[in-house]
Specification:
alpha/beta, Rossmann fold, 2 domains, six-stranded parallel sheet, 15 helices, 15 strands, globular, disordered C terminus
């Protein structure tokens, strides 16, 4: 890399070796940005305890030559740093921990990283010239770090909303005071930003409605996506003549496999000739309650739990599937896994509510939509899918549709947003609005 590259400091608490889908967007942006003239440096936390570890994603960014600056953090995850992988807690424990975190830690449980991250970033920015700061959230602590650095070093700040802040379905605001404080924080960082990126149309709409000083072009939709390079393997993992349904992701809160499992149990009970010809694979962290439900329904021969897999192995599972199951009970989140489903080009069984995500699934023309809690609708969908499977007529996502979500082209869109804030003559940023009302 040469001095012709512009330099961006990317603030991301969640980053490999941490796994799960929250890290992949930043990994892929960092991997591909140099192709568009931008040299990223990642500011993140030291390796710590987490629900999943994915060294393959870490190797991917290291092989791409991405510099990673790590700091310690005073948060609960550091208590498990020697253990590495932390087991997913029971749902009542997760909710209890979330409640206390939301009551006492604002904006989130990662606020203990802010002081150390700022110290490391300031030292770096005093030594080297950077063109832009990019902060991705959650956690919203990343936004606060970016806002303070922008104010001190007069660099343009780009915010990346992977999920909503105030409308996030798993965020709890115990009192009106908590709501006020969060809204005030968000308003401050939004006013400090020079461009906002969102993964979901609903998030963009919410920001524009809440902050009237934002113009339509101040908030840009760049969806989640998939990396075509991850889909190189063609290994077949399921048995011939068996329709394999795969779900990839973590179950928590109201998202669980109960409706699908109950439907599968009914299908096999009412159609014994189908037993042994439909299997379901759940890739990701496993909760004991889900294992118990499988045992209760006597589906041990049909359902498997390979556990959390490194990213390429997970993608291999997607490629080997006949049908991919997607479940979503809100319309404000944007799980990255859906876009990898598109990248696999496979048929999708979607348990979703009305809204933007459902519209997207309908547009792909390879999805069957059912209401998340409707067991009979799932029964009917499974039978319809199996009939299509036997006839070798399962619908596929077209290349034209899938390519809209290619990580390489999406990173190109991000680079265009970065470039729009640059002064080409002086290699410095241009303030679009010095003061926002």
């Amino acid at each position: 890399m040469t001095d012709a590259f512009r330099k961006v400091l990317m603030i991301a608490y969640y980053f490999p070796p941490m796994g799960l889908s929250g890290v992949q967007r930043t990994v892929k942006f960092a991997k591909f940005l140099p192709k568009f003239g931008w040299k990223p440096t990642i500011l993140t936390v030291e390796p710590t305890g987490y629900f999943a570890i994915d060294n393959s994603l870490l190797k991917e960014v290291e092989d791409a030559g991405v510099r990673i600056l790590r700091t310690g953090s005073f948060d609960a995850n550091r208590l498990f740093r020697k253990r590495g992988v932390v087991r997913m807690p029971p749902e009542w424990v997760r909710k209890t921990l979330q409640f206390f975190g939301d009551v006492f830690l604002i904006p989130d449980t990662k606020i203990g990283w802010k002081r150390r991250a700022l110290k490391a970033a300031r030292e770096l920015l005093h030594k080297e010239h950077f063109d832009l700061i990019f902060a991705t959230a959650p956690p919203q602590t990343d936004f606060l770090i970016g806002e303070e650095l922008k104010r001190q070093f007069s660099l343009p700040l780009v915010l990346d909303y992977r999920d909503a802040w105030l409308e996030y379905p798993f965020k709890y605001f115990p009192t009106p005071l908590h709501t006020f404080l969060h809204r005030r924080m968000e308003r401050r960082v939004v006013k400090a930003s020079y461009r906002i990126i969102t993964t979901h149309r609903r998030v963009k709409e919410g920001l524009l409605k809440r902050y009237r000083f934002l113009g339509y072009h101040d908030v840009v939709l760049i969806t989640q996506g998939f990396d075509e390079e991850d889909f190189s393997s063609k290994e077949r993992l399921s048995r011939p003549g068996v329709m394999n349904i795969v779900h990839a992701g973590t179950f928590y809160a109201g998202r669980n496999p109960a409706t699908l499992l109950l439907a599968l149990s009914r299908v096999l009970h009412d159609n014994p000739q189908v037993r042994g010809r439909i299997t379901v694979t759940f890739v990701g962290n496993v909760r004991e309650r889900d294992r118990k439900l499988v045992k209760k329904l006597r589906l041990q021969n049909e359902v498997s739990f390979p556990g959390y897999l490194e990213h390429r192995e997970c993608v291999n599972q997607l490629q080997s599937a006949d049908v991919l199951w997607f479940v979503m009970d809100d319309d404000n989140s944007s799980p990255g896994k859906l876009y990898e489903y598109f990248g696999s080009r496979k048929t999708i069984l979607a348990s979703v509510i009305d809204g933007y995500t459902k519209q997207l699934l309908e547009e792909c023309k390879a999805a069957i939509w059912v209401s998340p809690q409707d067991v009979q609708a799932h029964v009917n969908a499974l039978l319809d899918l199996f009939s299509l499977f036997e006839k070798k007529k399962l619908p596929k996502v077209s290349d034209e549709f899938a390519n809209r979500f290619n990580r390489l082209s999406l990173t190109g869109e991000l680079a265009k947003q970065f470039e729009s804030l640059m002064d080409y003559d002086r290699n410095a940023f241009v303030k679009v609005d010095e003061v926002r009302a």
